[in-house]
Each structure stands twice: as structure tokens, then as C-alpha cells.
Amino acid sequence: MTMHHSIRFSGQRTGDAPLTWGQRWLWEEVEKFAPRHEHLNLSEIVDVPDDVSLPEVLTTLQKLLEQRESLRTTYSVDPSGEPRQHVPSGGTLDVVERTARAEEARSTAHALAAGLRSVPFSLDDFPIRAGVVTSELRPRHLVIVIFHLATDGWDLRNLLAEIRQSWAAPGEERTVAARIHPLDQSERERSPEGQAVSERSIKYWKKQLTNAPADIFSGRSPVPESPRFQEIYAESEALAVAIRDLSLHLKVSPTVIFLTLSSICLGKLSGEPRSFFLLGCHNRFSPSDRTATGPLYQDAPLTVELTGADFREAVRRTWRASVSAYSAAKWNPPLLGAAVEDIVRERGQGVDLSCNAIVILEPHAGLPPSPSPAGAEFIEALRSRTRKLKMPGTAQDRTGRRFFLRAQNTSHAVLTSLRTDTTVLSSEESARFLEDVEELAVREFLTIPR
User: Which residues make Cβ contacts (< 8 Å) with residue 121, sequence separation at least 6?
Assistant: First the structure.
């Protein structure tokens, strides 16, 4: 059975502003895929505690909408063609309630999430949808779908934590007045200080692009597959253990270890003396940025010189390069676009910006310790449990992107995915790339003194 609930909400302020840099970075993809940009819908399923009622779930959603301006923002294009954001004073949100038997509640939640996620948002819609799965007269799961223009992975994690906290401590008031919202962020970016940040980042980009490869995949022409863009997933316990132990041994973050592994494998694949990624950066370094709403994500070039480097030297070079990249991922998109065009003219050839990487790997506290000594039998036993999955393909990807590598933690493994343009890299070669990353990690794991 399906029912609907209407939530009325009103915020403390209203306003209009240009998009933030993070929103503007996403806007290119919104425009390219319009009106079918549902792949930019982010969904989450939150388990509802036994002592939380349906009215309390609806009240939680109401407060989120009132406290987070990004969730009640609409978008438009002004007469000059520039995208803008508008925060209205209030509105209503329709919440779907779907009733299911207790044993079917989770599968019903997944089906509801898939349905809500499959419909693209209109720019004049509020960028959030919600549903509740109930059984035995109480809510079991809250389903949330949010348009990427209104959030990013970090912000979404904060939002989920707030939901759970509100249920754990009902009635407790939390101070949110100091939180930075997209209207504030847009103003900050247009200030002299914001312009200076963008200029420093663009200066770094120019330096990196001067010697960037013109075509990382030059000479590669496999038979294109249908759909053209194919994606492979791999979930590896062996990679998780190897990255954790290498991170502890070499005293760098798991992200640096994974980027080193990937850089070496990309260099091997391309034959280039250096690897070149556009590295996705969360831009959440200060306390105020860590609690800001809306998307702050942008990217920056990561260049790792591979010539004459063994693995440990490659780790050192990757660490230095990643520090610089993470410091240069805040920039005004139109100004950066003009700077890239200038570099292309000066070089007399293109710049290959087609390799993208997003790596979100934190220290893996949930993994069991490696035995001592941790030999080949131990790590190969883990490797035998690696799971691979080929995802449904797509006919297009973000403009210019041909190689999109991602990595994140699961509870017991590292989940990697690689989506490639099969005119340069077949799905079989993509699967082999992920295998090569794992194999290199295992090989270096076995060199750690115990």
C-alpha cells in the first residue's frame, strides 16, 4: 500500500546568487545530459530505530529542509545564459509511504530508492525526494534522494549523521546558524580573497598542463563496445589489507598508497614517463568547510614522475604531488576554462584531461590484523575472494572523460571501479587494470619487514 504525506517548511532567509564553483563544475554535466541527468541523483537508505515514530521521521525531514538551504534551492538560467540559484522562503515536500511485510521492508526500501532515483530532477524542483517504508505500524527505513547540485559525498555523510543524531537525542537543539550554505559560499568565492584562491589554483593548473600529455592513450583503438562506456567493479579484501599495511609501514595515508599503485599502473598502460590524473578533491579542510552544505568538490591535476622510481620513491613523489593537487582544487570554472584554452594555444596541441580519479580511503579500522609473518599464502587466500562485477554501460560520459577510476572503503574491503571509453580501453582491459592494481599492492605487501 502507498500513501503520501505533505511536509510544509519555511526557512530563515531567502536569496539569489550565482552558482558556487562546485555547483558550476557540476553544471557542465547537468547541461550535457539534460533532461536525462538522473545519474547525478544520490540516494541513501537510513534504518529507523524501533522507538522513532512516523511523525518524528517527518519532523526530522522538515527540520533538515529548514536548516539546510541547499535542500530547498532551485536553479535557473538568467537572460545572459548564466546559471543561478534561488532559495525561496518555504514550500512543501511530498513524502511517499510504502507499507510492506517486515521481512520485505529492506527490499521494498531498495526498490523505492531505485524508483525515486530513476527520475531526473527538474531545475525548478526542490532537489530532494523522500520516502518511508513502514511495516507493523511503524517506520523501518527512510529513503532519501538528493540532486548532486545540492550536495556532495561529504555533505551527505554529515546530513545522515544529523538524522541519526536527531533520533538518538530527540528534542535536543543543535546550533546551525554558523553553517556555510551555498549562498554564503558564492559570496565568499566572489570576494577578493576568493578570487585570490582561484588565481593560485589556476597558476598551479597552468604549470601542470605545460608538460601534460597530449593524448594519454595515443595509438590505442580497440573495437568499440556497445554501449560505448563500460564500467567494472572489484571488491578486494587483499587490496584493503595491503593498502593498510603499506600505509602504516611507509607512514602515508591509504589514499596516497592507492594513488601510487594507480599511477604506476597507468604509466605501464599508457607508456608515458609520468602519470597524469585529474584528482577529485573534497575541499573540506577547515572546520567551517567540513560542516558546509552543498557541493564543494572540484578537481586538480596530479602529475607523478615515474622515471627511475621504485615503489617507495613513487610513494614519496605521489605524496608531494597530491599535497599540491589538493591545495589547488578551488577555482572559478569559466576562468580555468579560458586558462586551459590559452595553454593549448601556446603548446600548439591539446591537453589530455580524460583521466579522472576519486579516492576516498580512510584508515581501515575494521580489518583483522595481518599475521606475522604475513606470507604469500595469507594474502593469496584473501585475493581468491576478490569479487568482480560488470555494470550496465552508458552511451556517454562527462565531456572529455575517457577513464574514471574510483576507490572507497567497504566494511571489510576496498571497492574500486573503472569506467572507460571503449574506443581507447576495452572492458577486458579495464578489468585487467584493476587486477594489476591489486597485484602490485600484493607484491609490495610481501616486501614489508615483519
Answer: 37, 38, 41, 127, 147
